[in-house]
Amino acid sequence: MYYKKYLRLDIMLIFFKLIFLFQHSTSLAQNKIDRIDLDYRYIISELSEFSKLSSFLINNHSQNLNFKTKKLTIDNKPYEFFIDMYYDSNNFSLYQSKSSLRYRSRFKNTNQSIRNIHYKLLNLDNLSYNEFKLKVKEYIKDEADFIDYLLDAKNSETTLNIQKKVNIRNLKYQFTVVQNRDRYYLKDQNGITVYTISLDRTLFKKNNINKMLNFVEFEINELIYASGTDKERSELKSNLKNIIVKIQKKFDIIKVNKSKYEMGFDNLEIKKNQVNFNIDNILILFPLFILLSLIILIYIRKPKF
Fold first, then answer.
1. Which residue segment(s) compose the domain that 271 sits in?
2. pTM of whole model > 0.70?
3. How confident is the model over 218-237, as pLDDT tens digits?
């Protein structure tokens, strides 16, 4: 009698542990992250404000961005041009988890420099993103090419992390974002870039729908932030917020708490409330189904005394 009682308890504990490991598997690969993306995004409602802010940064008003212990100088680089094609599953599982997956073609001064697949996974702080990049050596022309490329790179860190969220074979093209970007690098006294301010003229596109928005983004160096201690990260965020406050006092910018992927859905009026019962849902519900079935079976067969 006691043997059967403790056997039932052992089985239940094992299944609880399996479910815990399954539900936290997406975080297991986050322990060795060398890039953490933390940025603050603002819409510039008027084009005239966009031009004024650009002139302010080009004229290198670094005296307005000094701190008690550090002086930052501004270094402007030639403009960049991006074409981002976003992908998600049938039931928008990346969107629902505030993650994003894109294929980016990047150009500098009209010359294409690099192609990457970018996967961003929201961190537990609900603010920063773990970022995974997969360098693309050949042109990806469509959805099938994109899926094949990820499957061919099945052992890459990027693909392994994507597979924890979605079934790669179920990925579907969602929309395109085209951006003209001017970057301004804020460097410390050693010439190391600590922060980046980006001015983006952004076009969201899907089928015959186009929506143009202008953004300014403030970003902490991904490598510095990822390698920093909690105290160093807190200082980096505090100093960046001071920069933002000073710029807010001079220019009309509006804070947004959504990624560009999320804003694409809003501005292109994409229906995202459909839920298809596919493999993504099955993988989430299957452990719970097994546990419930086991509990029912144990108590149905419970010996009577």
1. 35-300
2. yes
3. 999 999 999 999 999 999 99
